[in-house]
Amino acid sequence: MGTLRRKQVVGGQAEALALGQNAVDVQEFQTLYQENLGLIYRYVYSKVGNREEAEDLTSQIFIKAVRGVDHNRSTASIQKWLYQVARTTIADYWRAYYRTTASSLEELLEAGWEGPVEEEMIFASSQPAERVQRVLQALPEHYREVLTCRFLLSLSIRETALRMGLTEANVKVLQFRALKRAADLEHVVTRTV
Amino acid sequence: MSGEDQERFEDYLELERYIDELQAGRVAHPPSELTPSQVRIYRMAALFRSASPGAAEPRPEFVAALQARLEQELEEEGGESTQKLPVLPERRASQAQRRPGHVSRRALLGGGAAIAASMVVGAGIERAAVQVANRNSSAHNPPPKGTPPKSTAFIEDGVPTIWHFVTTVAELGKNAVRFATNAVVGYVIFADEDADPQDRGKIIAMSAACTHMGCIVQWESADRKFVCPCHPGLFTEYGKVDNNSGQRYLFALPRMETKVEDGKVYVKVPID
To answer: Same structural domain for residues A77 and A122?
Structure first.
């Protein structure tokens, strides 16, 4: 790993924010960008599931990172910082959907809401598509099938119902429960890698 | 979990609507007010969508456009980078327009209507806090050449300020009282015997923007601590980083000036 203008070593991302004044080496930036754009984009996409928002959020993450980064750090640590920005941005995105009650903070924490270490490990160790495969393999047959039809093959409710010999209403219930089970499994499955 | 998580028929329909949007490649938003376990279902749907063949690859046009934009950003940065607002709040504003009700939910989370505005400022304050913190550490690390001198105050020199009335001494009691202006969100608290000697007997005010990423910390009166809702940042009742804070590299919550007149507590805040 090279360094981006290592003039002075400082620790801590907060300090990094204050030091964004040195112009970054454009070539080094390009390398960093090329190496990380795909990773970040796929991560973001896996959290929002649509292109428009994935592009929007990815742009924000990189702009925020570029504005805030301390160029004195090594590229490895800039990369880590970039992922931190990504995680926080995604956490903010999803936070808007939570019901907020008096006990919600505890509930969120219990539900593993963006637990920092865990998430980071998952993030670093496997790509979204890989995680999906792992979760699929761990699911019971009918759950695996309904999710495969709807998401990997992009079949409609009707097509899925036909294929599985179910009613459309059944498929709606089944996909709900399959995703619920998948959510329960995800951490277990991806952690044991 | 309680009965909140009983499945209802509408839940199936709402999820199907979401999946349908995802399949069509459109912007999809889950319904609001979800329980944590419901949110996980929707997040799983988004994850599965990303495994759909070809879906999660960035468009080359996008890759090129963003790169150009960032390079421009870097060039400009040579000059006056720190004056810019972070990008995130802009999105919040546009999101609020796209999805009515968004702001009010966030307001619920924070417990005040000013919270949406405060989030914008939160990030700005974070920067200010960093500058203060940076000054404090500059004894050990002299600032690099070419760095302009850091402001020595939470509110930078030259920023117009006013005294903002928060509460009365009588009402303040032992708890932290939150205040919000268009420019800042903060807390005031009475520093009693367990405070540092120089603070004892005073009413202190601090910014509520977590020094990590600028989220607004919440007062937990049972533990007498400030908790960041975004990450495991934890601060003592006087704004110091708590020993149990799970978030590293934090600085103390920046202090603000206070005064008491006729039993009323005021905090010096920037005008808007």
So the answer is: no
ipTM of the complex, rounded to two decimals:
0.73
Q: Which residue of A lies nearest to B57 if distances are taken between CA atoms?
A: A42
Model confidence pLDDT, tens digit, residues A1-10: 444 443 333 3
CATH code for position A85: 1.10.1740
> Residue B115 pLDDT more than 50?
no
Q: Is A98 in Cβ contact with B39 (below 8 Å)? A: yes
B95 vs B203, residue with greater confidence:
B203
Number of domains in chain A: 2
Same-domain check for residues A129 and A84: no
Looking at the fold, whether A128 and A169 belong to one and the same domain comes out as yes
User: CB distance B74–A17 less than 8 Å?
Assistant: no
Check residue A70 and give its pLDDT. 67
CB contact under 8 A, B13 and A53: no
Contacts of range B223-232, beta carbons closer than 8 Å, 24 or more positions apart: B226/B176, B226/B187, B226/B253, B227/A105, B229/A95, B229/A105, B229/A108, B229/B109, B230/A88, B230/A91, B230/A92, B230/A95, B230/A114, B231/A88, B231/A91, B231/A114, B231/A116, B232/A116
Compare CB distances from B81 to A21, A58, A172 and report the shortest one's residue: A21
Range of the domain at A173: 118-189
B40·A147 Cβ contact <8 A: no
Render pLDDT for B43-90 as a digit per residue (tens, 0 to 9).
Answer: 999 999 988 887 888 999 999 999 988 888 877 765 444 433 333 333
Strand pairing class (B264-270; B161-168)? antiparallel
Point out the residue among A72, A147, A154 whose CB comes nearest to the CB of B23.
A154
Picking from A33, A85, A145, A180 by the largest number of B CB atoms within 10 A of its own CB, the best residue to mutate is A180
* Rounded average pLDDT over B157-179: 87
Determine the residue among B13, B23, B50, B219 to mutate to test chain A binding: the one whose Cβ has the most chain A Cβ atoms within 10 Å: B50
Which residues in chain A have Cβ-Cβ distances shorter than 8 Å to B109?
95, 98, 100
**Measured distance CA(B245)–CA(B143) in Å, rounded:** 28
